[in-house]
Structure formats: structure tokens, C-alpha cells
Amino acid sequence: MRKFAFILHPLQPKDLARKYPFVRFLPDFLIEKYSATASPKIASHITGIRSKTGEEIEGYFIGLPLIPRQMIKDIPLPVVYDKLAKCAEMASDLGAELIGLGAFTSVVGDGGRTVRSRTNIGVTTGNSYTVATAIDGTLKACALLGIEPSNSTLAVVGATGSIGRTCAEVLAKEFGRVILVGRDLERTEAIAAEIPGAIASSNVADIAHADAVVTVTSADTEVILPHHLRQGAIVCDVARPRDVSVRVAKERPDVLVIEGGVVRVPGDVEFNFEFGFPKKTAYACMSETMMLALEGDPSKYDFTLGKEVSVPQVEEMRLLALKHGFELAGFRSFERAVGKDSIDRAKKARLMAHSIPRDAAASLR
After folding, report:
1. How wide is the angle at C-alpha 196 spanned by C-alphas 193 and 197, nearest 5°?
2. pTM for this model (two decimals)
3. What are the b/e assignments for 188-221, b being 16+ CB within 10 Å?
4. CA 14 to the chain's CA centroid
5. Displacement of CA 267 from its chain's centroid (Å)
6. What pLDDT is recorded for position 363?
7. Looking only at Cα atoms, what is the longest distance across the chain?
8. Rounded Cα–Cα distance for residues 57 and 48 (Å)
9. Which helix (H) or strand (E) segment is 33 a member of?
10. Alpha-carbon span 226 to 229, nearest angstrom
């Protein structure tokens, strides 16, 4: 049976309690002091993944005990590469043919290229299927709220990144107007010039004009706050850590926030590790790694490597998902399932916003 591995890491210090319950009683600075020097460890054995084709695989979660800030600020990049290479070495020793880079491990450095140069197994960031599910999730949410994309405005935050740019390229064909937001205005303008109907901005506040927002920055802090969003808007937050502040969930019940890339995995999968999702569901990046393992084609194990993600890659992963039985598993928001009441509330707020003047609608938030 073919095997794969996938790297997990905590998004905040207390997340280490998922594996080591005692750390919840420690202050964050002590947890970070420990995690900075700790070695990667096998977090769990994954079983029960069975494709519609009948193919079965198994895998391993490998835990890297670093939070995002440590990877991009506190610890030298060569040291981070050493730890990632160690994860790949462990995966190879377990018999895995490829390893997926989870969350910030796919962002840090050169998007896995250095890691790949230091291992004998395939490496993928999972970003191609992440883009596919972000696109599909956004369009599905629009349909539920009665948003007609061709008459609506889309904003993409983090548009100069590989995922953001490809999301914009694909979704721009569906929406009447597109706002691209990036920190570097010149780079953002260059991308906007290549996408019909797109305009560039370096001010996240401009997403207040958008009916739907896809956000996928590599920031390690909150980017989107309650006052940034239009009444009745949809936000698909693909980033990990999240771009959307938890305050949005508390202060803006009129807005529908969904997490990009929540996928139902075929078979009777047991992850044997609690990472905050319902049973038998996973992140899209995890799912891409599983699909490539199910395909069993070594020439495609490095499917999404580096910082670029192309539209053809996204379309190919969509086809593989259909072939093997991976599909969107509904919506989640801030670690909870999105219920019908949340969708109805956002839909009602949107109808109100379109039936009264914009300034009056803003006063109802």
C-alpha cells in the first residue's frame, strides 16, 4: 500500500496541547522556548483512505512544533529548512513516497523547493487544490446568498501571492468587477493589468465595496477587521493563520465567513489526530497530497512546488478530486460548522443592504 506524509504545525502556542495536553497550563513564552528547539515528531498514523477507484493508501502526520512567527521572524531560515528536511527524512523512513507541506510550511522560504532538493521523496504544497476549493466554495456561497457574480464585485486580498493571483484569474471570469489588494501597489497593478476588469489597491479598506472576498495573505496577524466588510458580504478565508479577525464573527453576524478548503475524504478515514475539523474531513492541501498518493505517479508527486500555481494545475486537481471522490464538505467558520441560520442571517442582511441607501445600511451593522 502506498504511503504519504503531511506536515502539521501549531498556529499558536496553545495548539501544541492537541498533542501534549499539559502545555495548556504553561505560559506562551515557555511553550515557544520549548518549540524553538524541539525536533519534529510523528503525530499520528492515518488509515482508511479509499478512492472511488478502489485504490487505498495510508499516511502519517508529522508534527513540526513551530508557530508561524517563529518560521518567518524568530528563527533563521536555514534552521527552518533543516527542520523541514528532517520531517521529509522521517517520512521517507516510514515508507512515504511524498510529503505535503501544511499551512506556513508551504509559505516559508521558496515554497518547498529547498526541501525537495534535500529529500528523495516528492514534495507538494497542496496549493493547487486549495485554490480549486476556494473558488468552488466562494461560488457556492454566492449561490446560497443570492449573489449573482456577473453583477457583483469580488475582492482578492493577497493578490500578488500565487494562490491569490490564480483565484483572481479564475474568478474574474465570473464577476463583473474585481478589486485586487496587495501590499506592493506596483506589483498589484501589474497583475491587475493582466486580468480584464480588475483594479489594484494597497488599502484593505477598499474591500468594503466587495460582495465577495477571497483572502489569502501570508501575514501572521489579522488583516480583515469588522469595519472592513460590506453588509451581507461573503468572505472566503484561505489563509492559515486566518486573515479574518475573530471579532468579525462576534461583531458582524450579517457577514458570512467561510474557511477555504474543507474537504470530505473518501473511505472510512481515521486521522487519529484532532486538528479541529469534523471526522473524515481535511484541509484541501492535505487532500491534494492524498490524491497524488492515490494516483501513484512519481512524476506528479512534486505537483505544486514553488510559489506559482497555474490555472491548468487547478483544473487538473479538480479532475483528480472527481475521479477519487474528494468533495467540498460544507462550510466551516472559526472552527465551527456553518449552519443554515448563519446563511439565512447573511442573506437577509444582504437583501436589506440592497433595499435601502448604502449609508443607512452601514448604520445597521
Report:
1. 100
2. 0.88
3. bbebbeebeebebbeebebbbebbbbbbbbbbbe
4. 20
5. 23
6. 42
7. 63
8. 7
9. helix 28-37
10. 6
If one looks up domain 129-261+331-363 in CATH, what number appears? 3.40.50.720
> Which pLDDT belongs to residue 11?
87
Spatial separation of the C-alpha atoms in residues 56 and 49, rounded to whole Å: 6
pLDDT tens per residue, range 310-343: 999 999 999 999 999 999 988 888 878 888 899 9
Strands of the chain, DSSP E = 2-8, 41-50, 56-63, 98-101, 122-124, 153-157, 177-181, 198-201, 212-215, 234-237, 256-259, 262-264, 267-270, 281-283, 327-328, 332-333, 336-337
Q: Parallel, antiparallel, or unpaired: how do β-strands 98-101 and 122-124 relate?
A: parallel
Cβ-based neighbour number of residue 278 at 10 Å: 12
The CA distance from 116 to 305, in Å, is 9
What pLDDT score does 30 carry? 92
Q: In the prediction, which pLDDT does 365 show?
A: 40
Alpha carbon distance 230, 224 (integer Å): 12
Residue for grid cell 525536533: 39
Distance CA 55, CA 128 (A): 22
In 229-339, alpha helices (H): 246-251, 284-295, 311-324
Task: Locate the domains of the chain by residue range.
Answer: 2-127+263-328, 129-261+331-363
- Give phi and psi for 9, each to the nearest 5: -150, 155
Cβ partners under 8 Å of residue 296, min gap 6: 2, 55
Alpha carbons 269 and 47: distance in angstroms, whole number: 6
Q: What is the pLDDT of residue 361?
A: 42
What is the spatial distance between Cα 53 and Cα 313, in angstroms, rounded to a whole number?
21
Counting as low any pLDDT under 70, the low residues of the chain are 261, 355-365
Q: What is the pLDDT of residue 225?
A: 97
The whole-number pLDDT of residue 261 equals 65
